[in-house]
Amino acid sequence: MDYFNAFWVGGLICALVQILMEKTKMMPGRIMVLLVVTGAAVSALGFYEPFAEFAGAGASVPLLGFGNVLMKGVKEAVDEKGLLGLFAGGFQAGAVGTCAALVFGYLASLIFNPKMKK
């Protein structure tokens, strides 16, 4: 049942984003920022943990999950460092995922030899 919940919740998130892309004039970058901010807001309100418990990877893999990671990092850093943690916490929490995306993207570009569009 866990796989089924992850599949339909992740699919629903992707379908809603696709509808948003098709029916509005929002650019993909703005939609991605909207997803991260929504994940952070849902996390700040305390609803993300029960949602992630129910949906598993369907909730944690999309950009909503990245917003949750950033918010958790900020909360922990503020508890430890005070106001300075507000600025440092998100960077520390999101560093591993961001670094992995850069490294694997670079490796993929070496393997698959991308070409510039003309």
Descriptive terms for the model:
mainly alpha, 118 residues, single chain, 84% helix
- The parts where pLDDT drops under 50 for at least 5 residues are none
Q: Give the strand content.
A: under 5%
H-E string? HHHHHH
Helical proportion, percent range: over 70%
Number of domains: 1
- What is the number of helical segments per DSSP (H or I, 4+ residues)? 6
Number of strands: 0
Oligomer: single chain
Radius of gyration: 17 Å
Largest sheet: none
Content-based structural category:
mainly alpha
Overall mean confidence score, pLDDT: 90
What is the CA–CA distance across the termini?
A: 47 Å
**Mass-distribution shape:** globular
Structure summary:
The chain is mainly alpha-helical and about 120 residues long. About 85% of the residues lie in helices and about 0% in strands. It has one domain (about 1-110).
Describe the structure.
The chain is mainly α and 118 residues long. The chain has one domain. 84% of the residues lie in helices and 0% in strands. It contains six helices and no strands. It has helices at residues 2-23, 28-44, 48-55, 57-60, 63-81, 84-112. α2 (28-44) crosses α5 (63-81) and α5 (63-81) packs antiparallel against α6. The longest helix has 29 residues, at 84-112. The radius of gyration is 17 Å and the shape is globular. The mean pLDDT is 90.
List the helices and strands and how they pair.
Layout: H1 2-23, H2 28-44, H3 48-55, H4 57-60, H5 63-81, H6 84-112
Helix pairs in contact: 2-5, 5-6
